[in-house]
Amino acid sequence: MLKRIDAGVLNVSYEESGDAAGRVVLLLHGFPYDIHAYDEVSVLLAAAGCRVITPYLRGYGPTRFLSAATPRSGQQAALAHDLLALMDALAIPSAVLAGYDWGGRAACIVAALWPARASGLVSAGGYNIQDIAASVKPQTPENELRYWYQYYFHGERGRAGLQQNRYEFCKLLWRLWSPNWRFDEETYQRSAVAFDNPDFVEVVIHSYRHRFALAPGDPMFESTELLLAAQPLISVPTVVLDGGGDGVSLSGGSERHDRFFSGPYERRVIPLVGHNLPQEAAQDFAAAILAVA
After folding, report:
1. DSSP 8-state symbol, 212
2. What values do phi and psi take at 93, rounded to 5?
3. How many CA atoms lie within 13 A of 137 on its CB side?
4. What are the pLDDT digits (tens) for 189-233?
5. Do 263 and 234 contact (CB within 8 A), yes or no?
6. With contact defined as beta carbons under 8 Å apart, do 54 and 29 qualify?
7. What's the pLDDT at 30?
8. Is residue 21 classed as helix, strand or coil in its secondary structure?
9. What dihedral angle (degrees, nearest 10) is formed by the CA atoms of 65, 31, 268, 17?
10. Do the beta carbons of residue 272 and residue 244 sit within 8 Å?
11. Regarding the domain delimited by 2-292, which CATH topology (the fold level of the hierarchy) does it fall under?
């Protein structure tokens, strides 16, 4: 059931299913995806007795900013504070946090800085907290090629390109990032509607500029960004998932991420699966959540 609630600077739209008295699980989507990535995962978790909440992130779907004056920031600290604000608005003291891409970043940050709010963590791709100071260091040519879209967004041509071609652009990323996933047009269209949000382009462009220190952040999140610059450890029980067929994040990229986790930790690699882990491998994703829950 789609619901709405004012939470922090947003009016958040979210799906809720399962047992209202069950263990709370928050499912957080990435770019360029939406809550439909978790359709099957939600069914599996609800059947296991969980209360499942899946919000549209800022800039996606029906979620809206409450004020025109609020910066349309896509920085990592903003996503984490959105998650905290939603939990506060729903009177959820603690929950299992699960996500990938942008959503995985929000989950990792809350688990690292406010561990009492995360009873467990499932993070696709490992430790997703950005090291902005290190963003100036070149990576291998292969990885630089994978991140072409991020560099495209650094210029105004990229902003205009996303504004003009968001449907085709995001569909291209789906294909490149999940080369073994044969999604159909209906599946893509169901999620692509979320990219028509009036703030989608601004939030996305800011996200990919801020992480390279090319755009200032929202001042209200500066203290949190300073904490994140220290690359804080995550102490809550964690399962890290890697797709063996991820076209943007090499599955081996998280092999040494265990150094960022001080609590119970397990890494699972799912062969052939691409970047959209929950939609491509729902059973594996749900199993990881139940393992920490």
Report:
1. T
2. -70, -35
3. 6
4. 999 999 999 999 999 999 999 999 999 999 999 999 999 999 999
5. yes
6. yes
7. 98
8. coil
9. 50
10. yes
11. Rossmann fold (3.40.50)
Q: Would you state the torsion angle of the CA atoms of residues 255, 266, 228, 155, taken in this order, to the nearest 10 degrees? A: 50
Q: What value, to the nearest 5°, has the Cα angle with vertex 80 and ends 170 and 169?
A: 5
The single residue listed with the structure tokens 């300073």 is 226
Report how far residue 80's alpha carbon sits from residue 77's, in angstroms, rounded to the nearest whole number. Answer: 5
Please, where are the H alpha helices in the chain? 39-47, 76-89, 102-113, 141-146, 148-152, 156-177, 185-192, 200-210, 222-228, 277-280, 282-292
CA 241 – CA 244 distance, rounded (Å): 10
Average pLDDT of every residue of the chain? 97
Measure the CA–CA gap between 162 and 237, rounded to whole angstroms.
38
Burial class (CB in 10 A: 0-12, 13-18, 19+), 183: middle
- List, as own/partner pairs, every contact residues 282-288 make where C-beta atoms lie below 8 angstroms and the sequence separation is at least 24, other chains included: 282/40, 282/41, 282/44, 283/44, 284/241, 285/41, 285/98, 285/122, 285/124, 285/241, 286/40, 286/41, 286/44, 286/45, 286/48, 288/98, 288/122, 288/239, 288/241
Residue with tokens 């699966």: 273
Three-state secondary structure call for residue 229: coil
pTM to 2 decimals?
Answer: 0.97
- The full set of domain ranges for the chain reads 2-292
E strand or H helix at 99: strand 95-100
Q: Is 240 helix (H, G, I), strand (E, B) or coil?
A: strand
Q: What angle do CA 186, 124, 182 make, to 5 degrees?
A: 30
